[in-house]
Amino acid sequence: MEQKTIIILGGGTGGLVASHELKKKTKELARIMVIDKNDMHIYAPSFLWLMLGQRQAHKIQKPLSSLNRKGIEFINDEVVKIEPERKLVRTKNANFHYDYLIIALGAELAPEKVPGLTEAGYDLYELEGVERLREDLKNFAGGKVAIIIASLPFKCPAAPYEAAFLLDEYFQKKDIRAKTEISIFTPEALPMPAAGPENGRILRALLESRNIKFNPEVRLLTVDPNKKELLFEGNKTAQFDFLIFVPSHQGPKVIRESGLGNESGWIPVDAKTLKTKYDNVFALGDVAVIILSSGKPLSKAGVFAHYEAEVVSENIAAEVRNAVADKKYNGRAYCFLELGYGRAGFAGGNFYAEPVPVVRMKRPGRVWHLGKVLFEKYWLWKWF
Ligand SMILES: Cc1cc2nc3c(=O)[nH]c(=O)nc-3n(C[C@H](O)[C@H](O)[C@H](O)COP(=O)(O)OP(=O)(O)OC[C@H]3O[C@@H](n4cnc5c(N)ncnc54)[C@H](O)[C@@H]3O)c2cc1C
Question: Is the pTM of this model over 0.85?
Fold first, then answer.
């Protein structure tokens, strides 16, 4: 059989799973390549512990070059153009032809969309931002802490809430909680809307029980770093002493410029097969957009990228082997929610259920926190 070339763009969550699954299932029948502009894979869920000094940056990242010893070719380069009609990917330094293409380029962070934000605060979603945050947090002696979600959609809908719970514990232990106000500002009506209103209300009550102020449906326009002031739509303002933000997200530049995506750069895909409108081109994870029967888009999270990558790999491998490619993603997913004090929540269910997702939250406990920690260890061991 003629060897096929399968190119995976992105060595993040989806790219790692897809490349390993494909290698395992196609063996010598396919040449598998991963292209990423970064030479390191960074495990983002650990940012929350990094923020508190409970992790070190070098321990939560691994070199993508280690894929080479597993027979997966890693190319450290930036993808600048995708030409599906010619089955061609252009990087800064070379051109690559493919038989199958998996786009797993994630979401691009665009903090600059809100003037003043970067100057005034700490980016919870970038390694450098979290490292700065950790250092300055050590010297914080109390005041107004604002956690702001700049716009929707954003990946890992739980992360800013987890940050708030963990900070509550951190300030308690530093004995400055009584003089510290923690407030969340978000365009959402309730936390984690994709998990349904019932879970949103549970989470809001949990925030209130910890004296974390929840400010819903606010749209941030600008930040004044000198006055330490947030300005929202409708002329509302809020003051802060310490600002932590989730930046705006958009589709990667190469997708926005190639016309493969919608106006925001997200690639529409079939919910069950992750096929795009182009032959043999799949998109998965954060870069893909799937509209649920509720009319809302599927959330962006690593767990979706992971399961979607398994489906896509299985189907491509079946085609390569001339077998039937009939695997379908069923929308099942789960997530841990750090609550501090060694406890976490756990929500899981069917995000494709109709008419609305069916997602249940388990009683918070130590076991879920342990599960989250074990998953981190497993992830950084499994693929490297
Ligand atoms: C603080 C935080 C906590 C989180 N916690 C969780 C959690 O607990 N559970 C969960 O499920 N999810 C969590 N997430 C979300 C999760 O990390 C992402 O949803 C997931 O990584 C998406 O996977 P992906 O493969 O689509 O994209 P990514 O993992 O982002 O990978 C995209 C890759 O593409 C590369 N790339 C981009 N553009 C180019 C280009 N032009 N050329 C070459 N390479 C390029 C990038 O360098 C990157 O390596 C968290 C995220 C954050 C920030």
Answer: yes
